[in-house]
Design a protein that fits this description.
Radius of gyration: 21 Å
Mean pLDDT: 92
Number of helices: 15
Strand content: 5-15%
Helix content: 40-55%
Low-confidence stretches: none
Number of strands: 6
Largest sheet: 6 strands, mixed
Structural class: alpha+beta
Shape: globular
Length: about 325
């Protein structure tokens, strides 16, 4: 029997977004996640004639995706944030060592991993937050898979055991170990509610203060122990006074920046553009993801791999007109 290849592709394609979300949680990189999903689709497409419906198509695809991720990420710890690797730097003497891209946890556009009704989207936001995905990377890969399948996707122990080709007892044991390892490390702060008036007001004040480079106004929006980090640089700065020194010193190049709102990792985020070196408009500087705790900004993560990240969000590589006009 000749397989209808186009028909198979049509059956597989609706699973792409949720598989991307799963692979992102497993791998900590939007680019690796997309590669993993593409490999999953290729394997499923090539082996579809042997599938024969012995399990649900979704379960079968997740089994393939899990194996792809396990092959791609065999180490006990995958990607990290600067705060996972070093102590904070003094703002006046930042460690500007750049580490390789594969070291860092990367951001992901919400639109590539979230879908469904508002309740599903809200749950999905929590499980792609930077703090949560960073905590997941501390787990051995199979424990990571168990925790995501059981806690995030709400699979039963039996379904998870079938997918991982192990026993229910092993799944339950792995889940207990994963929970113990994470502890409070996966705490993600305030839930992002784009329509919440208080959050919208906070973000509007942040944009206004940052674009005006009003440091005193920025400080009023922060927690006392707020953190700034900028992968791929090893450095990170903690505390309002250190941030004051950073913005008045090494970070002063952000004067006259422009921010465009985006959504990343289930959190409010902005594409930052700095004044172009040639004076013609503004050019990309980073994707800044904000983490909010108790109504104040707790963490600012500026991802600076702009050549790859800005196209991922469909953002222009130069602004020639002031977006505030």
């Amino acid at each position: 029997m000749i397989m209808d290849r186009d028909g198979v592709a049509e059956q597989l394609e609706p699973f792409r977004r949720e598989l991307t979300a799963y692979c992102y949680r497993m791998l900590g990189s939007a680019f690796e996640a997309e590669d993993a999903v593409q490999e999953t689709m290729v394997r499923a497409w090539s082996k579809f004639d042997g599938f024969e419906g012995r399990s649900a198509l979704r379960t079968w695809l997740y089994r393939i995706a899990t194996n792809v991720c396990l092959d791609m990420g065999p180490a006990a710890q995958r990607r990290a944030r600067p705060m996972d690797l070093t102590s904070p730097c003094p703002a006046g003497a930042p460690d500007l060592t750049q580490l390789e891209e594969h070291i860092w946890l990367g951001p992901v556009p919400d639109a590539r991993v979230l879908s469904g009704d508002p309740a599903e989207v809200a749950l999905g936001r929590e499980s792609i937050r930077l703090a949560f995905v960073s905590a997941l990377q501390k787990l051995p890969a199979r424990q990571r898979a168990v925790l995501v399948l059981r806690e995030v996707l709400a699979w039963s122990a039996a379904e998870t055991a079938e997918l991982l080709e192990t026993s229910v007892a092993s799944v339950n044991s792995a889940l207990q170990r994963a929970r113990a390892t994470l502890g409070d490390g996966a705490s993600t702060g305030d839930t992002f509610k784009p329509l919440d008036e208080a959050q919208r007001a906070l973000l509007a004040r942040y944009v206004q203060a940052f674009e005006a480079f009003d440091i005193e106004a920025l400080k009023r929006l922060l927690h006392e122990d707020a953190v700034l980090n900028m992968p791929p640089f090893r450095m990170w700065v903690r505390g309002v006074e250190e941030l004051d020194a950073w913005w008045r010193g090494p970070g002063c190049g952000c004067v006259n920046s422009r921010l465009l709102p985006v959504e990343a990792n289930g959190s409010p985020a902005f594409a930052q553009y700095r004044v172009a070196e040639d004076g013609d408009g503004w050019t990309p500087w980073g994707i800044t993801v904000l983490e909010i705790v108790d109504g104040r900004i707790a963490t600012m993560t500026n991802h600076m791999d702009v050549e790859r990240l800005f196209p991922l969000w469909g953002l222009p590589m130069r602004l020639t007109e002031d977006p505030r006009a």
